[in-house]
Write a structure and sequence with these properties.
The protein has 472 residues and is an alpha+beta fold. It is built from 14 helices and 21 strands. The strands form 4 sheets. Strands 11, 12, 13, 16, 17, 18, 19, 20 and 21 form a 9-stranded antiparallel sheet that branches. Strands 5, 6, 7, 8, 9 and 10 form a 6-stranded antiparallel sheet that branches.
């Protein structure tokens, strides 16, 4: 067998704020992954990478090696009667729904972008706008095959290798490589959903609506204007999406055609999508974000008068994909996301404090997103009975300001951890080494470390995230 040819390049997290040089290959099958593991013993370790949509350093490995799994993207089997698919890990959520929707199925859990791979979704145990109702991605995985660094192929489900099943889902690629997975999809009868836009006058109003509607809504997500102050602090706009029942939408079946889901090439009827990120770039440079937010809040009021309205699944879920390369607007510093998960009882107090501290320090996120969550059965979970508030920060180019932003996020993390909160590693770039034990508890962390030691005794699976969080 000839040796694999690794190429060296700079690999970034999705936010382009953190990253480093690494050697890469794109394996085409499990044999090549096993060969890559064998060839890399004694090196600086291997990280796995799906579509590279983790904002921070979960899929980067400075000075080491990376397996880019996008080449393993075959859909292996689709049972259109039961809504079950078996696929390779590099298959994207986009390719999945495009294949399944004509048969009346949609992935049970999707993130805010359809670029994410199934392997990355399982390894981070992603959540959707329906986390409070259907749980996390892993709860819809029936089974997967894990290739361990020692070259063993483990079939993992709720009966077989059950411990590995619950640790590799949400185990951020540290236990081995998922080489195929079987997933349950959910039945849909229309290609559209019924959607409401509901203005929230302040943070508590947003939290109350998320709480009150969770027994009746299918999806809930709140946008927060992080710049509003005083009595309006935390004001925003909640979007509720409900699936349509069979026969409810006369056009429903026609809308199952993937071409009917395609996002329009222009916004507001005339603005080409490709103009949006330069526009955003200007807005961030000119300090216009507060005005943009105020405008958004007001236009949301108008949308609420037109509610409910019908919207395609793709338009509802993948709003961020409307604007290609929108994260370029934050070049050259890039962006980071800070997404604390706070227990229900502490949410109002802690989230208010976070917004206030951003405003006091003039380190304001340009975007805030609220969601309602529930606990799940995975070892390294970020799920809890409470709320998350994702905050996107543009990273200043000046080093001193960058350090200030990191310090600010670390101070906010203290508030969250002291309140019993958690963090989601797909979005992290700032947590310090002791945080993992505080999030999961010493016992759970030790179980994970023991399992890693068993499956990966040489510590081959690595990433910048793991080195940062497990440093002693
Ligand atoms: C615009 C945007 C919106 C987002 N919205 C949401 C959201 O609403 N909800 C949410 O939960 N997340 C969201 N995310 C985050 C995203 O869903 C996660 O970061 C996800 O893990 C990315 O998948 P990926 O394929 O890009 O994986 P990568 O980012 O490339 O990798 C993620 C992790 O998975 C591991 N991994 C990848 N493939 C495998 C494999 N085959 N076997 C084992 N481990 C593997 C990697 O080592 C890494 O630790 C969003 C991201 C973006 C950019």
């Amino acid at each position: 067998m000839s040796k694999l040819s690794w190429r060296r390049e700079k690999v970034w997290g999705w936010g382009h704020a953190v990253g480093g040089e690494a050697e890469l290959i794109q394996p085409r099958n499990s044999e090549e992954i096993a060969q890559a593991f064998a060839e890399s013993r004694g090196s600086c370790g291997i990280a796995l990478r799906g579509s590279g949509c983790s904002y921070g350093d979960a899929a980067t490995n400075s000075g080491g090696r990376i397996l880019d799994l996008r080449g393993m993207n075959r859909l292996l089997e689709f049972d259109a009667k039961r809504g079950i698919i078996r696929a390779e890990p590099g298959l994207s959520i986009r390719d999945l729904w495009r294949h399944a929707l004509p048969a009346g199925y949609w992935p049970a859990v999707v993130p805010g972008t359809m670029e994410v791979s199934l392997g990355g979704a399982a390894a981070m145990n992603i959540h959707g706008k329906n986390n409070f109702a259907v749980g996390s991605f892993g709860e819809h995985v029936e089974e997967f095959t894990l290739l361990t660094p020692a070259g063993e192929s483990l079939r993992c489900n709720r009966q077989q290798n059950e411990e590995v099943f619950h640790a590799a889902i949400g185990g951020f690629g540290m236990l081995g490589c998922i080489t195929e997975l079987t997933l349950h999809l959910k039945k849909v009868y229309s290609g559209r959903m019924r959607v409401w836009a509901i203005p929230c006058r302040d943070l508590d109003d947003g939290l109350r609506l998320l709480e009150d509607l969770r027994d009746e809504a299918d999806y809930l997500v709140g946008w927060v204007d992080m710049h509003a102050r005083g009595a309006q602090l935390g004001r925003g706009l909640l979007h509720r999406g409900d699936q349509l029942a069979q026969g409810e939408d006369p056009e429903g079946e026609k809308m199952l055609d993937p071409s009917r889901q395609d996002l329009p090439g222009v916004l507001l009827g005339c603005v080409p999508k490709s103009w949006i990120w330069p526009g955003m770039w200007m807005a961030t440079r000119c300090g216009a974000i507060p005005w943009v937010n105020a405008l958004r809040y007001r236009s949301g009021m108008k949308k609420s008068w037109d509610s409910p309205y019908l919207e395609s699944h793709a338009a509802f879920h993948f709003l961020l994909d409307y604007v290609p390369r929108w994260h370029w607007a934050f070049r050259p510093g890039g962006l980071i996301q800070f997404q604390p998960f706070v227990p229900k009882a502490a949410a109002s107090r802690v989230l208010r404090k976070l917004i206030e501290s951003c405003q006091q320090k003039r380190l304001l996120p340009y975007l805030g997103v609220l969601k309602r969550h529930r606990p799940d059965p995975f070892l390294m979970t970020h799920g809890l009975d409470g709320f998350s508030m994702a905050m996107d920060f543009a990273v200043p180019t000046r080093q001193s300001r960058r350090i200030e932003l990191w310090r600010h996020c670390q101070e906010m993390a203290e508030l969250v951890l002291n309140a019993g909160g958690r963090f989601y590693y797909a979005k992290d770039a700032i947590l310090a080494a002791d945080c993992m034990a505080r999030i999961h508890g010493e016992d759970s962390l030790q179980s994970f470390v023991d399992l890693k030691q068993r499956l990966d005794p040489e510590g081959l699976m690595q990433s910048d995230l793991w080195r940062r969080l497990s440093a002693s």
